[in-house]
């Protein structure tokens, strides 16, 4: 058994030593047009009939130079035979060194094909044996896109990474061209913790640094281009020279790197199964309608909120409109945004707050509202229903002409505390004069009596005006609209610099101004009707034209970028136009 095992091991060792190898190696895989490289065909046996490739695309400068070596180690012989050529490329591009062929003991062997990348001529050609790395091979700027085939309004993440080989250093990078995101809503993500990390690039170990991150929401379908990020950068490369301790000397050079443009193919949202209530929301959301009060007095106000929470294109979508009975006065909603944008997209909540003022008592039902969105993960539409809301209003019914008023509560009486239950007993003697004075027929008596008769007509007049004001449903509505107009104009001034909030507040101010001056509802506010009513009220043609232009500016400006200067100009224009129309309407 032991003899058989020894024989098997002997044959395994013999076969291992007798294994034929025939390889081709080059000094460099990348050369300039005016540089040279060497190629060596090496075998570990004394092969016959060596045939080199035709070296197409190269000029043979020298070779073949043949070398043979043989050695004996521990009774075993080994040999090496090689053929070396010096080549210079004759054209640029990707060239190949094809198979070299030889035979050994009647069996043919050949080398693998080697690919050489030839660039344009350089001012300082490298030595043939200088295999120090090139900056272009060791530094790469890459734009990594999380999804190159998203749906319309589905977020994608773009990360710009600078990859550097482990034996290379970089410093002082400067942006030459910044990426532009035409046809995308974009948000750059602040990256304060820039730290180098270990990774791989095309299968080789590298260090990389995240330079920039952005979240993009495509606003068009089809093929969209992301323009490249381009940097000028200083690179430190190792050379063939070594210092006393064997460390390589570093050379410094500048280079320009670019991430290259990227093409994103955006899919349209499916038409099949699209609900009628869909208004462009893409993501994953919850939906509800809340009221801050369910019971109130006629003439008081309540707030109804249409709210959407979740993850998706929150800043880019429209909320469904709240519908209320015609007997309830509803004002333009105030938009509230509480949205944060991170590398994964927008997350948070948005809501429209409606101010509702019931003028008469009764039971009111706010009908249910539907909200639909497209879920790109499940690739389907989802519809949510808010359910109906009930409001109880105390006060006169709409058919009643009585102007009953709430009874004012009487002033509270003084209350004696538990520790003062004997305070009404006088414990000190107070001597008074016996001379009596009478209040009746005194000067004080006649002054109070006369004052009462004088004040009575004033009280009646004030009371009558108060009753008339409370009964004036239209007047109350117009006064509320006027207050809201001033409130939203003030909010617009405070939001100069916040593009979206500024134009929302300015538009609400203009709408409520029209309500207060023209007694017109939001649903009837077409530009032609507004112009006609302003003309009937005496507003001049120029003022009317500027007012209509301001309304159009508010409609379009929310979806286009603007500067602080343009927002300040629109605010000043609104104040000027409203002031002029006010003066003209009073004539």
Automatic annotation (TrEMBL):
The chain crosses the membrane at residues 443-462. Keywords: Membrane, Signal, Transmembrane, Transmembrane helix. Residues 1-18 form the signal peptide. It comes from the Bacteria. InterPro entries: BatD (IPR025738). Pfam families: BatD. PANTHER family: BATD (PTHR40940:SF2), PROTEIN BATD-RELATED (PTHR40940). This is BatD protein. The lineage of its organism: Bacteria, Pseudomonadati, Bacteroidota, Flavobacteriia, Flavobacteriales.
């Amino acid at each position: 058994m032991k003899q058989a095992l020894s024989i098997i091991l002997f044959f395994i060792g013999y076969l291992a030593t007798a294994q034929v190898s025939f390889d081709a190696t080059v000094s460099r895989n990348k050369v300039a047009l005016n540089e040279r490289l060497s190629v060596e065909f090496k075998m570990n046996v004394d092969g016959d009939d060596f045939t080199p490739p035709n070296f197409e695309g190269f000029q043979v400068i020298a070779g073949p130079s043949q070398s043979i070596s043989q050695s004996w180690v521990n009774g075993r012989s080994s040999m090496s035979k090689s053929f070396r050529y010096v080549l210079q490329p004759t054209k640029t591009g990707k060239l190949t060194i094809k198979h070299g062929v030889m035979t050994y003991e009647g069996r043919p062997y050949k080398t693998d094909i080697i690919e050489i990348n030839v660039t344009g001529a350089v001012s300082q050609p490298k030595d043939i044996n200088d295999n120090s790395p090139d900056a272009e091979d060791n530094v790469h700027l890459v734009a990594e896109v999380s999804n190159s085939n998203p749906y319309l309004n589905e977020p994608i993440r773009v990360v710009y990474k600078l990859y550097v080989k482990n034996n290379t250093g970089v410093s002082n990078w400067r942006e030459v061209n910044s990426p532009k995101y035409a046809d995308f809503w974009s948000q750059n993500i602040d990256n304060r913790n820039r730290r180098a990390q270990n990774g791989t690039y095309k299968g080789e170990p590298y260090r990389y640094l995240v330079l920039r991150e952005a979240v993009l929401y495509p606003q068009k379908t089809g093929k969209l281009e992301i323009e490249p990020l381009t940097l000028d950068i200083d690179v430190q490369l190792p050379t063939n020279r070594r210092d006393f301790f064997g460390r390589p000397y570093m050379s410094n050079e500048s280079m320009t790197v670019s991430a290259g443009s990227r093409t994103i193919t955006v899919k349209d949202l499916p038409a099949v199964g699209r609900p009628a209530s869909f208004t462009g929301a893409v993501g994953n959301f919850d939906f509800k309608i809340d009221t801050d009060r369910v019971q109130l007095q006629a003439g008081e106000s309540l707030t109804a909120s249409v709210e959407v929470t979740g993850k998706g294109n929150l800043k880019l979508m429209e909320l469904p409109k709240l519908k209320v009975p015609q007997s309830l006065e509803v004002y333009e909603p105030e938009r509230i945004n509480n949205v944060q944008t991170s590398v994964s997209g927008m997350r948070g909540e948005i809501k429209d707050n409606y101010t509702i003022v019931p003028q008469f008592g009764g039971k009111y039902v706010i009908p249910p509202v539907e909200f639909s969105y497209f879920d790109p993960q499940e690739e389907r539409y989802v519809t949510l229903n808010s359910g109906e809301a009930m409001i109880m209003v105390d006060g006169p019914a709409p058919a009643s002409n009585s102007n009953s008023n709430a009874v004012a509560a009487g002033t509270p009486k003084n209350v004696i505390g538990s520790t003062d239950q004997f305070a009404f007993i006088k414990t000190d003697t107070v001597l008074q004069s016996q001379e009596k004075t009478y209040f009746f027929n005194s000067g004080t008596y006649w002054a109070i009596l006369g004052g009462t008769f004088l004040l009575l007509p004033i009280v009646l007049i004030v009371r009558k005006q108060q009753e008339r004001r409370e009964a004036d449903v239209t007047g109350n509505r117009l006064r509320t609209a006027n207050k809201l107009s001033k409130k939203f104009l003030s909010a617009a001034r405070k939001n100069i610099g916040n593009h979206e909030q500024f134009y929302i507040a300015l538009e609400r101010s203009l709408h409520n101004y029209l309500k207060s001056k023209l007694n017109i509802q939001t649903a009837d506010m077409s530009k032609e009707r507004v112009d006609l009513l302003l003309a009937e009220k005496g507003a001049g043609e120029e003022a009317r034209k500027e007012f209509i232009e301001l309304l159009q500016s508010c409609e379009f400006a929310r979806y286009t970028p603007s500067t602080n200067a343009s927002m300040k100009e629109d605010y000043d224009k609104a104040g000027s136009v409203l002031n002029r129309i006010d003066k003209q309407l009073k004539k």
